[in-house]
Amino acid sequence: MDGMSTLRNRVETHPIAGSLGAVVTGVDLSRPMDAHTLAELRTALLDHLVIFFRDQALTPATQLAFARHWGDIHLHPFMTGMPDQPEVLEIRKTPADKRNFGGSWHTDQMFSPKPAMGTMLYAKQVPSVGGDTMFSNQYLAYDALSDGMKRMLARMNAVCVGDKKRGGVSRKDFNAATIAMTTVEPPKDVQTTSVHPVIRTHPETGRKSLYIGNHVHYFEGMTEAESQPLIDYLRAHSVRPEFTCRFPWQNGSLAFWDNRCTQHFAINDYPAETRVMHRVTICGDAPF
Ligand code: SIN
After folding, report:
1. pLDDT tens, N- to C-terminus, the chain (288 residues)
2. Is residue 131 in a domain?
3. Which of 280, 254, 257 is nearest to 21 (CA)?
4. Phi, psi of 67, deg, nearest 5
5. Is 92 helix (H, G, I), strand (E, B) or coil?
């Protein structure tokens, strides 16, 4: 990755870490977007994996309009969108909440047969300090594995589950006891368990990455007990500090990340304050 690079037009990217992540300047996301700018943003996303925009003034409708340039909108089967804009999920944490949404390393909707390609998160109200989000580069996590491990994982698939019912408690009941955001049982016709390759190939860059978010329950053809030690190893490996960046939010910031080659983690370190974010998730392809 280079230092500050000027893309063809007015879009500039400013990396925030050696591994991934860049702040993009020169774009007002609330305005209609021309094809040239969109192409520059796609290049920035593919190069940096997560791109950040500061000082944006977005409504749910204008955030959604920007998101629609990237594909159809992926609705979260367990969470309910905003009443007048169901494609936008409001992520709200107040001092009354014990947990936060997204507070473990994961990649979005890995339990779906076609997991989300990308996610756009817009900051409406951020705490005075804390509430950052971390990201990890899963190309680097793959590249750093030994050849032997790469060979073994190349033949393996993971069973990814949206509601693991740990201790017999459903996601809906667990969330009801710990966060105020409403969690629902998914419609019966929506698939929330899927089998995906542990090493996936990015459909646009052709690069291989490790695909091991928190929805991985066990490896196909193995028991949970047999799978767990390797899951633990790979999950720890996938978020080594040198693969990560950390984004400090301000009101009006927007992050757009590529779920096909990253994981992210929302840090819960603002117990006495409120954080409100608006999230739109874009449909993706079946991993291969
Ligand atoms: C998420 O996992 O989508 C939420 C991330 C955040 O709130 O920082």
Report:
1. 444 554 445 899 999 999 999 999 999 999 999 999 999 999 999 999 999 999 999 999 999 999 999 999 998 888 889 999 999 999 999 999 988 999 999 999 999 999 999 999 999 999 999 999 999 999 999 999 999 999 999 999 999 998 777 777 777 777 777 777 777 778 888 888 999 999 999 999 999 999 999 999 999 999 999 999 999 999 999 999 999 999 999 999 999 999 999 999 999 999 999 999 999 999 999 999
2. yes
3. 257
4. -60, -35
5. strand
| Global pTM value | 0.93
Residue span of the structural domain in which 180 resides? 5-282
Q: What's the domain count of the chain?
A: 1
Q: Is residue 33 a part of any domain in this protein?
A: yes
Strand runs labelled E in 168-243? 193-197, 199-201, 208-210, 216-219
- 80: CATH: 3.60.130.10
Tell whether ligand 1 has an atom less than 6 A from the beta carbon of residue 133.
yes
CA angle 138, 158, 171 (to 5 degrees): 95
Residue of 79, 90, 91, 244 best suited for mutating to test ligand 1, as the one with most atoms within 8 Å of CB = 91
Q: Is 91 in the pocket of ligand 1 (CB under 6 A)?
A: yes
On whether residue 120 sits in a domain, the answer given is yes
Ligand 1 centroid to 152 CA: how many Å? 32
288: in domain: no
Cβ of 199 less than 6 Å from ligand 1? no
Ligand 1, atom 1, lies closest to the CA of 102
CA-to-CA distance for 165 and 145, rounded, in angstroms?
31
279 lines ligand 1 (CB under 6 A): yes
76's tokens: 């979260």
d(CA 43, CA 31): 20
